[in-house]
Structures are given as C-alpha cells and as structure tokens.
Design brief:
This protein has 83 residues and is mainly α. It has helices spanning 2-17, 24-49, 63-69. Helix content is 59%, strand content 0%. The termini are far apart. The chain crosses the membrane at residues 28-50.
C-alpha cells in the first residue's frame, strides 16, 4: 500500500523537482533520493509492525468446520407445468 502511494505521488513530485535545462540531473538526484527515503521509511514501519504468525482470518477452514457452520440449502419443490 505504501508503494502505491509513492507511485501516485512520484509523478507530481518529479514534475516539480525535475526542470528542463542544465539542472535536470540535479533534480533527478533529489527525486530519486526522496523516493528511496520514502520507501525505506515504509519498509522500517513494515518490519516493526509485521508478524510472522498466520492470522485467524487467513486460515483455511477444513471441510468439517465449513459443513457445521453452513446450514443446508432448503429443498425446492418444482412443479412441472401442465400443458
């Protein structure tokens, strides 16, 4: 998610930092340094709060748990049309 935000804002930031002319290289250096800094901050935040344990919502239930949790479908009696 953080990478998406960096991708969205990168075009706006690049337009403001990178100008045509003799200072274009300097603008790209600043832009890339800023992008790397944003990505590194996001990685550090992820590493601090990430967990290696599988969350309860991510576990796949086995078939017996699914069968117990879901009620059976009602039977539908369909009458044949009389012609």
């Amino acid at each position: 998610m953080y990478s998406i935000n960096a991708g969205i804002f990168s075009t706006i930031i690049a337009q403001r930092l990178v100008k045509r002319g003799s200072r274009a290289i300097e603008g790209w250096v600043h832009f890339l340094a800023l992008t790397i800094t944003i990505e590194l901050v996001c990685v550090v935040i992820f590493l601090i709060f990430a967990s290696g344990e599988q969350q309860e919502w991510a576990k796949i239930p086995d078939e017996t748990e699914v069968a117990k949790a879901e009620p059976p479908l009602p039977e539908v009696n369909r009458k044949k049309k009389e012609t």
